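[retry 2/3] HAUS augmin-like complex, subunit 4: previous attempt timed out, resubmitting with same input.
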Amino acid sequence: MSGGSESKLVPSLGTADSLHQQVLASFPLCDMTEEDLTQNPQFCKLLATLAQHVDQTGLTVPLRTELDKAEQKLQSQRRQWLRSEILNTGLQEMIQDYCVRKHHTNVPLDENLFHETVRKCMLVALCVRQLDTSITTNQDQPCVLGLNPQQVMELMPSENVQQMKQNLPTELEKHLKKKCLSLLLYYQPKWENDSEGLKNSKLSHLSAQLETEKKRAESLKEICQENTVLLQRHTQRYLSEMTKCIQLLQSLILDHRLKIQTDLDKKKLAYFEGKCELVLQKIKSEMVEIQLDMYTTDIISAHRKIREKLESELKASLVEKQSVELKLASFEILGKEFAALAEEYCKLRQEIEMKNWALKEFTQYNNK
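[retry 2/3] HAUS augmin-like complex, subunit 4: success.
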């Protein structure tokens, strides 16, 4: 029975490649490829059957319905809260604008009275809301600062409240309209020189335009995400095909080309060995020719005479050094009076070292 039901559900999605594509489209969040589905056909059928009962995020249909209802309820409550928050923020901005204008210009008496009444009423309402702890805490707790909301409500201005309530919708409408116009000009600065009626007409369509652009941006974002997923799949497929091609090329190189290349490499190796030996022999012959050109019979005999002379001078210097050292040792105990003898001894040592160096250099060149 279960196998028959699956066979009825799976063909609805398609077969072969179309089935694989539809399964991948039904589960975009899963890191799968078409090759994975081809290698695991039973798993592919399971996903195709599961796609009939869940959406792309993995939620079941009943759960998605409940989630949508909760989302609608949340949006409704959010709109109500935003409506009250916008009104409250608008009133606060009206009072702030009034305070700024009051310090720069002379405000009419009726406007001054209206804004002061609104400010006092809002201040009292704020204090009442702060003192009302019945929503979040027990009512038996002591009141803040020993006050209760009823006592604060007594501070509500009794005069001009009725007049303020009558004028409040009009003033608030003016303020909100001013904000809407500033938003309109921010959205399209080129409309600043238009007439008031044309601005109001464009303002009435601003919400629809923004909603259209928002939907367009979301649509482009979804298209971008789909293109990203598609690009990843194509990239994986391309890499897979490239890997297969590389493996095929490697097999061709290893199985065919290297067999033919072996004999050629041996011949090349023998050729390079012979060429290398020839170059080495040529280098040795060039070195011998250079030595023969540099060291002739006359030069060698002159070097021998110079060496004999230097050796004789070295022996004489050594004898002289020994005699000086003996004298220096005998007179060293006498103190500073023989400093000149010590300096002379140092000079002799330096001369001996210079002659030793010259003899060593001459010996090296003669050996070459």
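[retry 2/3] HAUS augmin-like complex, subunit 4: Residues 1-14 have pLDDT under 50 and may be disordered.
[retry 2/3] clearing retry counter.
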